[in-house]
Amino acid sequence: MDKFDVIIAGAGTGGSLAAKTVAEAGLNACFLDIKKETDIGRKICGDAIGKHHFSNLGLKEPSSDEIEGIMEGIEIYSPDKKTSYVVKGDQLYGFVLNRYRFGQRLVSEAKSAGAILYDQTQAIEPLVEGGRVCGVKTKNLKTKSEETLRSSLVIEATGFTAALRKKLPPNLGIDLTVDNQDVEACYREIRLLTHSLDNRSLCQIYLNQKTTPGGYYWVFPRKGNKVNVGLGVAMVEGFPKPKERLYQHVLSQPLFTDSSVVDKGAWYVPTRRPLNSMVGDGVMVVGDAACQVNPIHGGGIGPSMIGGKLAGETALKALEKGDLSREGLWEYNIRYISDYGAKQAGLEVFRILLQNVGDEDLNYGMRYRLLTEEDLLKVSLGEDIRFSITEKARRVFKGLKNISFLRKLKNAAKLIREAKNWYKAYPSSPADFENWRTRTEDLFRRAVGQFAA
Fold it and tell me: From the CB of residue 338, how many other CB atoms can be counted at a distance below 10 Å?
C-alpha cells in the first residue's frame, strides 16, 4: 500500500496544475487518470482560453503546435441573426487550443516536477477513516486489480463525473450533487470546411432559445479550414438531444455543405457558481468537479487551472502546519471563491436572465441596443453594469415597447452586483459558513423568481 503526501485524482488541466504545484515544492505526490498517458488531453471541449490566464498563473503560453487559432474576441448573434455584437478586450484575447497537445504538456510538466502518474487507474471512492479522507480506493484498468493508495491529503479533480466528491460523507460539508438545471448537455464536432471562414479571429456564438433552449451554439475557427462547431442545452426536464439539434439546425446551414467530420463527441458542463465549499477534512475539490466553469460560455480550462494552482498552494501550507482539517484547508475556499468565484456568481445571475428571456426579447434588445457590447464586455469581465440617468432615459425610451425586458435587465444589473459583493465577503472560517450558504441559496432563488416571472 503506497503512501503519499498528496494524491490528485484526475490529470486534466486542474489536476495537472495541482500535481505540478505540490511536486515542485518537493512533496511526495501522485496523480491518477482513467486514460492511458498517451490519451490524456483528448477531451471534448470548446478549446478556447484567454491569454491572461497564463500571465496570471505564471505559466508559459501555448507553443505553436498547441494552438489551433488566435481569438481576438467573440461575435454574438441575436436569434434572428439580424444583429451581431463584436465583443473584444484584453481578457477576451486568447487561443483556441489543440486540447490534446496542451493536455500532454501539462502532464509532462507535472511529471518533470516529480509527480508520479498512475495512468489507466480509476478512482473508485475515497478512503475515509475517523471522519476524514486519507486516501483513494482505485482500480488498475490494465490488471483489473484494486488497490488502496493512502495520503495525507486528496485533491478531487475527476471532472464532471466527480467520482470521489459524490461519495464523500455528507458531514464533510461539500455538496455531493449538482442540480441538472445547472448543467449543459453538449455535443460538438471538429469539421473540415470546403472553404475558409470570412473572419478567422472571432469565435462566433449564436443565441436561440428555440434551437438551443437554455444554451447556445458556436463556431470557433481552427487551423486550415477546420472549425469547432457545437451546441449546448440546459438539462431541464425533457431537454432535446444536442446532437440531433446540431444536425437539424446548424450543420444543415450552407456553411457546412460538403464538410467532413474530423472528430466528434458529447460531454456535460456545470454552468453555475462554484460549490459553496470545496474543502473537507483531508480533501479539496478542483475543476469541473468543483463547478469551476464560466456559467455563460462554459469555458473551464482557465478556471480549473486557477483552482488547481490554488489548491496546490493551500496544500503546501496545510502540510507545513500539519493541519489538514476543513479549517486548515479553508484558505482555498477564500482565495478562489472571493475572487474568481465572485465573477462566476455574477455570471450565473446573467445566465439565469438569458435562460428566461425569449428570442423576441433578445432580438429587440440587441437591435435597439437595450443591451450593448459594452454591457456584455463588462459582464464577461466580472464588472458591474451601471446605467447613468441619461442612459436610463435613452434605453427606457427605446424600450417602451418591451418594458418587461428592460425591467429584467435592470434587476439583473442589481443582482449581479449583490452576488459579486456577497461572494467577495466569503466567510473567513467554517464557523460562519452555514449562514453564508443559506443567504447564497436565497439570493439565487430570488434571481430565478424574478426572471422567470
Answer: 16
